[in-house]
Specification:
Helices cover 40% and strands 19% of the residues. It has 459 residues and is an alpha/beta fold.
Length: 459
């Protein structure tokens, strides 16, 4: 069952001790838990043959399909980038890549019952809108030919849009193809912050696309924001929030930027001295939850907010919300197939991932093989811990009795180590326990990743 809608507290209302405890936890990096275990635990011993067996087993499941297509290309890399992207102005690269994608579709479809409905489709990147209108049509047609796409009103077909690479004609074309959701990357509307992250896009650019998407009848539009960016200040970010609320998107994602220049080369262009102090970043996250709550948005899991009439809110209320490789979704009962370089798949109890390098991806497909380079077949223990982490990440709530009944375990005993780790969080007011139900407080919602990490046996 879903928990009651949380109330919001201001940063000023936090005691100094609780504030310090929150900072300590929030500053530590933890996985986003779009998978559990996180990809660092995937094994290189997992092969394409293992993935094929998982695909074939899944046909008897009765589950629908969710397709993720990774388009890695962009014209100009944002400095905050933590994704697999390939900056290019070479028009031949996308065309060659689309032909490899089609080979991967053909090889994969051989092992799938393609009568299974494709309930969800997501194009991410990179910048999918970098493709020409003709290339978009070609890719959509190939997906339809290999898997059979849906025209059902309840389908969830989404694409990430960089406002700098799209216009009203792009949106009209996407709507005609069959997309009914879009996600616009914004990060911050302050020009100084945009310059610091190498992503300059005036508000008018975003607003024009939003107005056109509403006119065309897109079911939902998500704006993506980030807290903790260079040159961000609390007053400046609150101003961005007010402008975003005025734009009235159906969904808002407000993630905490993690500065990891050793891991992501693009972030080395960011001057660390320009980053806000952890206390100010935390204040931005507090302000986000507080202000969006006042504006009527419902918190979804760790970093998303949605209008009350959005399908994510309905999924949160009826218990079908899931966090997967596409973020939060209302289509929990689907097998997720990832296509493209670095793409990950989640097929029941199996994860599989393609190589991050374009040449390795291309070479595998050119030799007639699926490009799987690593993955994992989850153990029963993994499945139990995944269920606990997903409950926290989706609902900020974990019912130990229900989980125990589902897996036929004594959940408090099974999770004794994790519950011991949460004891300090409970003392700091981040979680509370009533019987066998653990619930994150409004302050705890800001550090759900850290709370969920107590159940991560791979850390």
């Amino acid at each position: 069952m879903a928990s009651a809608a949380p109330t919001f507290v201001s940063t000023a209302a936090l005691s100094a001790a609780r504030h310090t405890a929150l900072l300590r936890r929030h500053a530590s990096h933890r996985p986003g838990y779009m998978t559990y275990p996180a990809p660092h635990a995937f094994s290189g011993q997992f092969s394409a043959a293992d993935f094929i067996r998982a695909l074939e087993r899944s046909n008897a499941s009765g589950r629908g399909l969710s397709l993720y297509v990774h388009i890695p290309f962009c014209h100009k890399r944002s400095f905050l980038c933590a994704c697999n992207r390939t900056p290019t102005h070479d028009p031949t690269l996308p065309e060659l890549y689309l032909s490899r994608l089609d080979r991967e579709m053909v090889l994969t479809a051989r092992h799938l019952d393609t009568a299974r409905p494709v309930e969800q489709l997501y194009w991410g990147g990179g910048t999918p809108a970098l493709l020409s209108l003709g290339q978009m049509s070609d890719l959509f047609d190939r997906l339809d030919a290999r898997f059979g796409l849906s025209s059902a009103p309840e389908r969830d077909y989404a694409i990430e849009i960089d406002p700098r690479e799209a216009d009203v004609f792009t949106l009209r074309h996407l709507q005609l193809l069959g997309f009914n959701r879009i996600s616009l990357g914004v990060q911050d509307l302050n020009p100084e912050v945009q310059q610091a992250i190498n992503r300059v896009q005036p508000r008018a650019m975003t607003e024009t696309l939003m107005e056109e998407s509403h006119r065309l009848g897109f079911r939902s539009l998500r704006l993506e924001l980030a807290c903790g960016l260079p040159r961000q200040t609390l007053p400046g970010f609150v101003e961005t929030l007010e402008q975003v609320i005025e734009l009235n998107p159906a969904r808002i994602a407000a993630r905490h930027y993690q500065h990891r220049p050793r891991q992501f080369a693009a972030q080395r262009h960011i001057n660390a001295a320009d980053l806000p102090a952890p206390a100010e970043t935390l204040a931005m996250l507090h302000a986000t939850a507080e202000r969006l709550g006042q504006a009527g948005y419902v918190p979804i899991g760790a970093d998303h907010f949605a209008r009350p009439d959005d399908s994510l809110v309905a999924a949160r209320q009826n218990g079908t919300l899931q966090r997967n490789l596409q973020g939060y979704t209302s289509h929990a009962n689907c097998d997720l197939l990832g296509l493209g370089v670095s793409a990950m798949s989640r097929i029941d109890d199996v994860y599989a991932q393609n190589p991050a390098r374009l040449d390795r991806y291309a070479n595998a497909l050119d030799s007639g093989q699926l490009a799987t380079v690593r993955g994992l077949c989850l153990s029963r223990d993994d499945l139990i811990h995944r269920a606990a982490i997903e409950a926290l990440m989706c609902h900020a709530r974990l019912d130990l009795a229900a989980l125990g009944q589902r897996f036929q375990i004594d959940a408090p005993r099974y999770f004794s180590r994790a519950l011991g780790q949460l004891a300090e969080a409970a003392r700091d007011g981040l979680v509370k326990q009533s019987g066998e139900v653990i619930t994150a407080t409004p302050a705890g919602r800001l550090v759900l990743r850290q709370l969920a990490a107590a159940f991560d046996t791979y850390l």
